[in-house]
DNA sequence: AATACGGGGAG
DNA sequence: CTCCCAGTATT
């Protein structure tokens, strides 16, 4: 039996029951695929259900506000996915009359849809002959066929997508694509794959040459930037100070607090820091240290320090980015995880 | 070709 | 800690 047939056979008796598996609605599949980009199934599942409930079709999605979308997205990360989804939903309503496209050619033009997602949606929704190449596929193919070219080099990407394209010939695209990904996720896992019970063990290059733990090859080591975010929590009556984050940095368009970023941990005896703070909030300011947190992202470690402030005066003309809003309204806004956690814990 | 973009789980 | 997850956009 061929590699593909074995994979499909394995899939049919081992697949998980997932809420996006029993549909060919391209909108629903799009929803699931965007959410699952760089996101584990278990983490994405509740978000998928929540989004589908709030936006049962693309027209409903298109009429949402960005704040609404980002609020639902809160905690999932890579927020550009949410912003791009809204853009795309509106684009589909405006240009395709709310009929979500199913062809690779049209899908690949959509914002937030790359080669993987276009292949996934087109194959799952209309059985188009497009091979998905995601992290799972890279791993399975590199191990089984013994491809040592780095999966994130230019040549590597080309080799893997060529191979994937050949393998899907004569296969049922929707089933086979899902099968190889599920196989990678459950059987041919990154760490301690279940080779002892593997249906394609005999043909597997990596198993035969004891290179399971060396494949796939991946270049890159991300360098991590350290940052110090000093947040100021200012509450007067039923209003709180907030600020929307701008493009060019993490958490674009999400709302946090007035912030002074420093090159290192600040000390309360640092004149430079206190001068900055007074410049922002006035001379009569009362400053109190709240909790500190370490927030770890892929490319940066953010040391977050919260301060409570009282008797502050903000010049809203000089600092148009800062606003004072009702606390109840503030809670409805989308926040970075670290801010959302703080609100939940400290602001009633 | 490199880098930014979140957050979390597994080992 | 490190790795990596149903990747994409930008430089």
UniProtKB/TrEMBL annotation:
GO MF entry, a single one: metal ion binding
Entries under InterPro entries matching the protein: A/G_AdeGlyc_MutY, DNA_glycosylase, HhH-GPD_domain, HhH_base_excis_C, HhH_motif, MIG/MutY, MutY_C, NUDIX_hydrolase-like_dom_sf
Annotated keywords: 4Fe-4S, DNA damage, DNA repair, Glycosidase, Hydrolase, Iron, Iron-sulfur, Metal-binding
Enzymatic reactions: Hydrolyzes free adenine bases from 7,8-dihydro-8-oxoguanine:adenine mismatched double-stranded DNA, leaving an apurinic site
CDD domains according to UniProt: ENDO3c (cd00056), NUDIX_DNA_Glycosylase_C-MutY (cd03431)
Enzyme class: hydrolase
EC number: 3.2.2.31
Superkingdom per UniProt: Bacteria
Start and end residues of each HhH-GPD domain: 35-186
Cofactor: [4Fe-4S] cluster
Co-factor binding details: Binds 1 [4Fe-4S] cluster.
Single GO biological process annotation from the record: base-excision repair
Chain's role: Adenine glycosylase active on G-A mispairs. MutY also corrects error-prone DNA synthesis past GO lesions which are due to the oxidatively damaged form of guanine: 7,8-dihydro-8-oxoguanine (8-oxo-dGTP).
Assigned protein family: Belongs to the Nth/MutY family.
Name of the protein in its database record: Adenine DNA glycosylase
């Amino acid at each position: 039996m061929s590699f593909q047939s074995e994979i499909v056979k394995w899939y049919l008796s081992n697949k998980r029951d997932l809420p996006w598996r029993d549909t060919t609605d391209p909108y629903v599949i799009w929803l699931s695929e965007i959410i699952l980009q760089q996101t584990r199934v278990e983490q994405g599942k509740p978000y998928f259900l929540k989004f589908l409930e709030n936006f049962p079709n693309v027209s409903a999605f298109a009429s949402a506000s960005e704040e609404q979308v980002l609020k639902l997205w809160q905690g999932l990360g890579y927020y550009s996915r949410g912003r791009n989804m809204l853009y795309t939903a509106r684009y589909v309503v405006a240009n395709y009359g709310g009929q979500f496209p199913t062809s690779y050619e049209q899908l690949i033009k959509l914002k937030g849809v790359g080669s993987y997602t276009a292949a996934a949606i087109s194959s799952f929704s209309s059985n188009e002959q497009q091979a998905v190449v995601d992290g799972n596929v890279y791993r399975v193919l590199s191990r089984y066929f013994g491809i040592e070219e780095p999966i994130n080099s230019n040549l590597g990407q080309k080799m893997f997508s060529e191979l994937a394209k050949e393998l899907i010939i004569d296969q049922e695209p929707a089933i086979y694509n899902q099968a190889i990904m599920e196989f990678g996720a459950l059987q041919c896992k990154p760490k301690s794959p279940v080779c002892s019970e593997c249906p394609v063990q005999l043909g597997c290059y990596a198993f035969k040459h004891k290179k399971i733990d060396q494949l796939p090859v991946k270049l890159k080591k991300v360098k991590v930037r350290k940052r110090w975010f000093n947040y100021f929590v200012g509450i007067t009556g039923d209003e709180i100070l907030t600020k929307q984050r701008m493009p060019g940095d993490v958490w674009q368009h999400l709302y946090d607090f007035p912030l002074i970023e420093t090159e290192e941990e600040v000390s309360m005896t640092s004149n430079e820091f206190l001068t900055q703070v007074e410049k922002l909030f006035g001379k009569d300011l009362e400053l109190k240290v709240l909790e500190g947190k370490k927030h770890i992202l892929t490319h940066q470690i953010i040391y977050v320090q919260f301060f409570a402030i009282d008797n502050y005066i903000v010049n809203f003309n000089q600092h148009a980015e800062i606003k004072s809003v009702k606390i109840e309204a503030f809670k409805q806004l989308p926040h970075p995880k670290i801010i959302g956690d703080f609100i939940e814990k400290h602001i009633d």
